[in-house]
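User: For my dataset I need records formatted as: sequence, then structure tokens, nothing else. Please produce one.
Assistant:
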Amino acid sequence: QVQLVESGGGLVQAGGSLRLSCAASGRSFNSYDMAWFRQAPGKEREFVATIAWSGDYTYYADSVKGRFTVSRDNAKNTVYLQMNSLKPEDTAVYYCAGHRDGIRRGGTPQALIALWGQGTQVTVSS
């Protein structure tokens, strides 16, 4: 069983950058497409970005497109989320997730997520 552990969250000013990491244990990490979700206070968890197992394909929510970049290093069993030009509305708990749904327009449905991390808090001050 693959386990996911996020890191890299913290407090940053608007306009700043953070890079989240998600380290996976287990030998089958390379067989999973990976995704990032987030949940802001009082709101439902929402899709942010996803990347294919090969790293060749990505898809982003419109709200982060052009500002966030998802990548992975299969040799290190790690997926990353580089977040630039952060806004206060990006404040949320960010979750790493694994799935085998492929990369689809509209993002990955939460019902198809097979693996979840514990989350890392990102706070963007204005």
